């Protein structure tokens, strides 16, 4: 999962816009800087870019949260495919505990600073080449998993859907150990082929559309498969990353530098000069995937809490979803007004946590919300395995 990133200002008069030009200079650096400085985003182009970023951020949160409910039910039932077609342990949700949440900002900070040092010491070209291959594999798998339920519904029933298994073991006899056990079918192969085409397009061209396809897949998978075990854990995680985001954006230039040097689909981008230059546009506004996934997994938790109440209402989900829209809009407004990169979590965390808490206070369900805790996977499995034993006895 990527760390939280800001939305840098993309106008030529902004500090981030100037940094873009300076980072892109070579032997013709003066010409590159002048070319960037001559472009001034129109109000229509700016509105289109920011509006598109907001819509792209909402898509993985909304649908990822819905899929997390199905995923959670499948986990309780001990199923591994939850309508996705994939039956592998990697597709099962990972539960984030309070200890994980407390350690995450520290781990994220070390990772971010490590990347910053790497870009300072080693050649940026070779680092990004290695990262491109790494994210090519991850992106193909993530996009395949995202597409799988849609493809499964579109493919006609007459389609010959054969089952396959990729098994790689170590040792023999009783000491044999599974290293890779990957099961898939013909529909999954269709998804893998389409995803691979997108992956090749991204590796060869680094086109912003291919980047966004992978980025949306990463974000949706993150919201779907990363589960907070309770609301308190969510508050710890969001609170820690709130401090992390503010420090690394306002306290140093590390976050902005890494975000601009890191050529990987860890951010969503949209050109402000699309209306003038078409698909070849190059003056981008961007939003880090961390600013989508981190609030998104909290919003998904609240949706699962709504489902657990069995009141046929989605009060907490909709209130937190609207809070996210408000917080992201406020981020863009402040960034555009002051022409400076903003830590999006500075605005998103208070909104996404505060709005549902206020709603819970009004409805008198605050204690119930903080007591809600998802059933651990292992506990569910143990309960299921013990029932047949009792029946046999």
Report the sheet-strand fraction.
5-15%
H/E element sequence: HHHEHHEEHHEHHEHEHHHHH
Alpha-carbon Rg, integer: 22 Å
The assigned structural class equals: mainly alpha
Structural features, described:
This protein is mainly α. It is built from 15 helices and six strands. It has helices at 15-23, 29-38, 43-77, 98-121, 124-154, 186-205, 208-225, 231-251, 254-261, 274-277, 290-309, 315-338, 345-363, 366-371, 377-392, and strands spanning 94-96, 163-170, 177-185, 226-228, 267-271, 284-288. The protein has a two-stranded parallel ribbon. Strands 2-3 form a two-stranded antiparallel ribbon. Strands 5-6 form a two-stranded antiparallel ribbon. A hairpin with a 6-residue loop joins strand 2 and strand 3. The longest helix has 35 residues, at 43-77. Mean pLDDT is 80; it is low at 1-37, 79-87 and 377-393.
Give me some keywords for this one.
393 residues, two-stranded parallel ribbon, two-stranded antiparallel sheet, 6 strands, 67% helix, disordered N terminus
What does this entry show, briefly?
By secondary structure, the chain is mainly alpha-helical. The chain is 67% helix and 8% strand. The chain is globular, with a radius of gyration of 22 Å.
């Amino acid at each position: 999962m990527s760390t939280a990133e800001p939305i840098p200002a993309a106008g030529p008069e902004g500090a981030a816009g100037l940094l873009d030009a300076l980072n892109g200079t070579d032997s013709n650096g003066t010409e590159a800087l002048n070319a960037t400085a001559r472009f001034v985003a129109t109000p229509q182009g700016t509105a289109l870019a920011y509006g598109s970023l907001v819509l792209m951020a909402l898509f993985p949160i909304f649908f990822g949260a819905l899929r997390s409910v199905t995923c959670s039910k499948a986990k309780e039932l001990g199923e591994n495919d939850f309508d996705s077609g994939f039956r592998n342990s990697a597709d099962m949700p990972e539960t984030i505990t309070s200890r994980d949440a407390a350690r995450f900002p520290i781990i994220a900070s070390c990772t971010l600073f490590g990347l910053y040092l790497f870009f300072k010491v080693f050649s940026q070209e070779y680092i990004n080449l290695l990262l491109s291959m790494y994210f090519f594999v991850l992106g193909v798998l993530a996009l395949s998993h995202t597409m799988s339920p849609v493809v499964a519904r579109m493919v006609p029933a007459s389609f010959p859907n054969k089952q396959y298994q990729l098994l790689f073991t170590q040792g023999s006899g009783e000491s044999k150990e599974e290293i890779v056990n990957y099961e898939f079918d013909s529909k999954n192969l269709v998804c893998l082929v389409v995803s691979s085409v997108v992956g090749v397009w991204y590796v060869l061209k680094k086109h912003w559309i291919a980047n966004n396809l992978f980025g949306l897949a990463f974000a949706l998978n993150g919201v779907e498969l990363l589960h907070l075990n309770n609301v308190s854990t969510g508050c710890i995680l969001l609170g820690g990353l709130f401090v992390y985001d503010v420090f690394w954006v306002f306290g140093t230039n590390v976050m902005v530098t890494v975000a601009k040097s890191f050529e990987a689909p860890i951010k969503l981008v949209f050109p402000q000069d699309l209306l003038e230059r078409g698909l070849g546009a190059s003056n981008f506004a961007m939003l880090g995937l961390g600013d989508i996934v981190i609030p998104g997994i909290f919003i998904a938790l609240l949706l699962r809490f709504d489902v657990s109440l069995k009141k046929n209402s989605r009060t907490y989900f909709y209130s937190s979803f609207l809070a996210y829209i408000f917080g992201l809009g406020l981020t863009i407004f402040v960034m555009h007004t002051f022409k400076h990169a903003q830590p999006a979590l500075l605005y998103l965390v208070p909104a996404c946590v505060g709005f549902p808490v206020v709603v819970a206070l009004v409805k008198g369900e605050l204690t119930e919300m903080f007591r809600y805790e998802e059933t651990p996977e292992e506990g569910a499995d143990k309960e299921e395995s013990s029932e047949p034993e009792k029946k046999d006895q």
